[in-house]
Design brief:
The chain contains 16 helices and 15 strands. The longest helix has 24 residues. The strands form 4 sheets. It has a 7-stranded parallel β-sheet with strand order 5-3-1-6-7-8-9. Helix content is 43%, strand content 14%. By secondary structure, it is of the alpha/beta class. It is globular. Strand 8, helix 8 and strand 9 form a beta-alpha-beta unit.
C-alpha cells in the first residue's frame, strides 16, 4: 500500500517549544510530508531541522510566506504585529496538490488551513486560543490597556475563525482532557485526546544523586505560568526555591522574591536534568494545557506538586507521582502549596513507579497514536467518497 501523502501546517517556526516538538514528531511519523507555516525564521527552521534530522527537513520541504520576510524586516524580535495577517495566509496555502490529509497544529489560527484544501483536515489542538475565549487569561497576558485593546481585537478574529473552521474539520485531537473540555465548550465538538510527546530519553533517574533541600520551578517566566505563586508559597513555608528559566515576567518576580528564592536564568538540558535529579520536588503552580515540565521531572523519578486542574490531571497521579493542590484563588493555591512544601518527603514516592508513568508519554507512543488516528480518518473519507450515491 502506498504511504499517505501528508501536509503538515504549523502557525509559525520562530522558536522551539512544546508545539514545535509535536510537529517534529509529525515529520518523523510519515516519510512523505510537506510542512507549511506562514512565518519561519532561520532559528526556527534550524531548530526543527536539528530535531528531525537534515534528511527529513530540508529547505525544499518547508514552505513559508511573505510573512517570514516581514518578520525578518522587523528584526525578528516579535511575531505579534504580524498575527492579524496569519489567517488570510493560512486560507491561501497551496494545499490542493494531491495530499491525502492535512494535519494542522493549532494554537489560534491553524485551522484556517481547512479553507485551502478539499483533503480531510485533522486538527491537533494545543488549545483553542485561550486569550481569545478567556477574559481573565487575556487580562493576564495583555500587559497594559493598549495591549488589552489589541488582544481583544485579535481575540475576536481568532474566535470567529475557529468557529467558522470547526464544522469543516474531519477530526479533532486535543492534547489533554482539559483542552478537550474547552473544545467542547467553545467549539461544540467532541475530540480524541492524545498527549503530546515528551523526550523522556533525555531525562532519566540517577539513584547515586542525593536529593537536596530545595524545590524547583522550571519554565518560561510569563504570567500564566504563575511562578509568583511558587515564590509566595516558598516564603510562607520557609523553604528554598530555585527558579530555572527566563522571560518578560522575571523582573517583577525578582521584586517579590526574598532570600529563599534563587534565579538561575535559562539553562541547558544538562543543567535542567541536574536540577530535576537534585530537587525535592518540582512545582507547577499555573494551569497548563498539558505541561511538559512535569513529565520531564517524573522521567527523572522526581515527584511533582501541581494545581489540580488543567493538564496536571492527565500527568500527575496523587500519591504515586506527586500531589495536587486545590485550585482556587491565589490565596487558596499559595496556602495549599505551602502546606505541601512543609510536608514534602521524596522518600514517600517510588522513583521507578514515577519513571514508569512518565514513559506513557514517550514519542514512540505519541507517533503510534497519531498514525492510527490519521489512517482511520483517511480510511473513513475514502469509504465515504467511494460509496454509491442515492439510486
Amino acid at each position: 500500500m502506498t504511504a499517505p501523502r501528508i501536509a503538515l501546517v504549523h502557525e509559525r517556526f520562530t522558536e522551539y517549544g512544546g508545539s514545535e516538538a509535536v510537529v517534529a514528531e509529525f515529520v518523523k511519523t510519515w516519510a512523505n510530508t510537506s510542512v507549511f507555516a506562514p512565518i519561519v525564521s532561520p532559528e526556527g527552521y534550524g531548530s526543527l531541522a536539528a530535531a528531525v534530522g537534515p534528511a527529513r527537513c530540508t529547505p525544499d520541504s518547508i514552505h513559508d510566506s511573505w510573512l517570514s520576510r516581514a518578520h525578518a524586516a522587523l528584526g525578528g524580535r516579535s511575531h505579534a504585529p504580524l498575527l492579524p495577517f496569519v489567517p488570510r495566509v493560512l486560507r491561501r496555502l497551496p494545499l490542493a496538490d494531491g495530499f491525502d490529509a492535512v494535519l494542522v497544529s493549532h494554537h489560534a489560527f491553524g485551522t484556517q488551513a481547512v479553507f485551502a484544501t478539499d483533503a480531510p483536515v485533522i486538527a491537533y489542538v494545543h488549545s483553542p486560543a485561550r486569550w481569545a475565549w478567556d477574559k481573565e487569561f487575556r487580562a493576564q497576558e495583555a500587559g497594559g490597556r493598549a495591549g488589552q485593546y489589541a488582544l481583544a481585537g485579535l481575540g475576536h478574529l481568532a474566535r470567529r475563525g475557529e468557529l467558522r473552521a470547526a464544522p469543516r474539520l474531519a477530526q479533532v485531537i486535543a492534547n489533554s482532557h482539559a483542552v478537550a473540555a474547552r473544545i467542547q465548550d467553545w467549539w461544540g465538538l467532541p475530540s480524541t485526546v492524545i498527549s503530546p510527546p515528551v523526550r523522556i530519553d533525555r531525562f532519566t533517574p540517577d539513584p547515586t544523586i542525593v536529593r537536596e533541600d530545595f524545590f524547583l520551578f522550571a519554565g518560561r517566566l510569563v504570567p500564566y505560568k504563575r511562578a509568583d505563586l511558587a515564590i509566595r508559597a516558598a516564603q510562607r513555608a520557609g523553604c528554598r526555591l530555585v527558579i530555572l528559566g527566563d522571560g518578560r515576567h522575571r523582573q517583577y518576580l525578582q521584586t517579590i522574591a526574598g532570600p529563599e528564592t534563587t534565579f538561575l536564568g535559562a539553562a541547558s538540558d544538562a543543567a535542567l536534568l541536574d536540577m530535576y535529579r537534585r530537587c525535592r520536588a518540582v512545582l507547577m503552580p499555573g494551569i497548563e494545557d498539558f505541561g511538559i515540565v512535569p513529565v520531564e521531572a517524573m522521567a527523572c523519578g522526581t515527584p511533582v506538586l501541581a494545581v489540580g486542574t488543567g493538564g496536571a490531571l492527565d500527568t500527575v497521579l496523587p500519591g504515586l507521582t506527586g500531589e495536587h493542590v486545590e485550585s482556587g484563588d491565589d490565596s487558596t493555591v499559595i496556602d495549599g502549596l505551602a502546606r505541601l512544601l512543609r510536608d514534602a518527603d521524596p522518600t514517600r514516592y517510588d522513583p521507578i513507579a514515577i519513571r514508569t508513568h512518565a514513559e506513557t508519554f514517550s514519542p514512540d507512543a505519541f507517533r503510534a497514536n497519531i498514525r492510527d488516528v490519521v489512517a482511520h480518518t483517511i480510511g473513513c473519507q475514502m469509504d465515504v467518497s467511494s460509496s454509491p450515491g442515492p439510486s
